[in-house]
Amino acid sequence: MRGIVRGFFESRIFCGWWGGMMLLWVALFALRNSIPFLIEHWYYPAIMVLGAFIAGLTPEGGGAAAFPVLSVFLDVKREMARDFSLMIQSVGMTSASIWILSQRGHHLPSYAPVLWFVPVSFLGFVFGMQAMQAIPVYIIQALFLSLILTFTLAYISSKHRGELHLLHARGFADHAMLAAVLFAGGIAASLFGTGADIAIYTLLVTRFRMDEKVATHISIMLMAAISILGCAYRFFWDGDVTDYQVRTWLCAYPVVLFMAPFGSYVLSRLNVEWMLRAIVALNIFQIAYFNLKNPTWAKLAWSTGFSVVLFAVFWFSLARIVRQTARRRAAGAGA
């Protein structure tokens, strides 16, 4: 146990960040929150124990747990569930990003594309906030639950294994595809607080054959930046962030500050197939609960339709890299 803790906190940069952010939390909690409020809203930090771990371990953000639990299970307004996802990821996924960037042996040029990924995705976020918010809530819930379920199903069942540590985008077609996926991911984040990470990860490991751990790290950094910018947009432009939202954010803040980078630490050392299977089981339960709670034909039709289409997209995208890898190995063996 001592060795795990020592390995996790081996970077002085990360230790300084983590300690500073904990001191900030103590100050903010003393000013804006209270122990009775924390006890009453215990489920916010409880949700993020798993959600933040998922955020650091996989290409899914912490919102993959926070949004459906709050929106579907606890009947929290969709906008508040989205905002909580963004607010909590702005701490957790940023903490995971700092941990990743501060570790020895990481090839920092691999993460350089994030510098232009972020503004393109944020444009999609702004567009989504301005033009997509009138979509009925149950359709957004069905889309999100189908998205995370089909992605994880395709992810664990496909033997995709990229090997490149640098993004090689050549010509207009590659850059246009990246821009389109980043823009769409930003729209997804405007609807349910996450999704940009899943979108870019899938493209990186398929079209561009990138190593899955590097692609996961890039997706974490992208979602961290979009979460910070999204929170700033909601706070300064919309002015709709309430004191209640700030207080619930403070309840879960220290949990995600630790659990998200800890997920990245586990990712760097373990085979995590068992964890991914557990996430699939959780996602199946969530979409089943969504359809069984106040069931309607419209909910069933939308969730089924989204699931079929999205699984086909993810499956064929991830299968593409398997075929390419097999052809390259066959060519190498023939040579």
From TrEMBL:
Keyword Cell membrane attached:
yes
Phylogenetic lineage: Bacteria, Pseudomonadati, Pseudomonadota, Alphaproteobacteria, Sphingomonadales
Compartment list? Cell membrane; Membrane
Specify the superkingdom.
Bacteria
Q: Which family does it belong to?
A: Belongs to the 4-toluene sulfonate uptake permease (TSUP) (TC 2.A.102) family.
Q: Which Pfam families match?
A: TauE
Alphabetically sorted, this entry's keywords are: Cell membrane, Membrane, Transmembrane, Transmembrane helix
Q: Where, by residue number, does the polypeptide cross the bilayer? A: 12-31, 43-72, 84-102, 108-128, 135-156, 176-202, 214-235, 247-267, 274-292, 298-319
How is this protein situated with respect to the membrane? Answer: Multi-pass membrane protein
Q: What is this protein called?
A: Probable membrane transporter protein
